[in-house]
Write a structure and sequence with these properties.
Blueprint lengths: L7 H17 L3 H17 L4 H15 L2 H12 L6 H13 L3 H9 L3 H6 L1 H14 L3 H72 L2
Length: about 210
């Protein structure tokens, strides 16, 4: 849709989100299809690669071999302009290939801003890494924080849904009451009109002769 109206940046952003979703679902067929489209766009404008590069490590971690992960990790780690958001994915990739030392290093080097943005993801990854490192107490603590935060998030969503349902009910009730009031006014108006017509007719026939 964005391509048809020539909004390339929006198109790439949508493609990146789609790719991320298919990676999470572990749907390689659709992920490869989206990635193929992205590569075509990047050939036309190499600057579009910035939308896709952050997802390549996640893609490789899910669908690639251990060798693929190691090769891509070497590229990311050697990047002097490594984005903070990517550190979580690097930590997880190291965890997947069993390099717990580096996994722990990267998960603990993530700055507070990124942690705040990706709080649940950070807790989930850190919990796994700490467990693999033998730090079961801290791992359990991270998992408890993760579970509590997730439960609070679901409760908040439920509360919002409940509030929306109540507001919708009130609106429907108000609309129904207004309709009933309007119908009542119409009924009384009709009665008055019929009564007036009856009186006029009675006067007419009474005084016609």
């Amino acid at each position: 849709l964005y391509r048809s109206i020539k909004h390339s940046l929006y198109e790439m952003s949508s493609l990146a989100k789609s790719l991320d979703g298919y990676i999470i679902e572990e749907n390689r067929l659709l992920a490869d299809s989206v990635l193929s489209i992205c590569r075509e766009r990047i050939q036309v404008n190499p600057d579009y690669s910035r939308f896709i590069v952050p997802h390549l490590l996640s893609y490789t971690t899910v669908f690639g071999t251990e060798k693929d992960i190691k090769q891509l990790l070497s590229v990311y780690v050697s990047d002097n302009q490594l984005q903070e958001e990517t550190k979580l994915d690097i930590a997880w990739a190291y965890y997947i290939i069993g390099d717990i030392k580096n996994a722990l290093y990267y998960v603990e080097s993530v700055n507070e801003e990124v942690i705040a943005k990706n709080y649940l993801k950070h807790l989930a990854i850190k919990s796994k890494i700490l467990e693999a490192n033998g730090d079961y107490k801290e791992s359990l603590h991270c998992y408890q924080l993760y579970a509590t935060t997730l439960e609070n998030f679901h409760q908040q969503l439920f509360s919002q849904d409940l509030l929306f349902a109540q507001e919708k009910h009130q609106m429907e009730l108000s609309s129904m009451m207004k309709l009933q009031e309007r119908n009542k006014i119409i009924w009384w108006s009709s009665c008055c009109v019929f009564a007036l017509l009856f009186i006029l007719a009675w006067i007419y026939y009474r005084y016609r002769n």
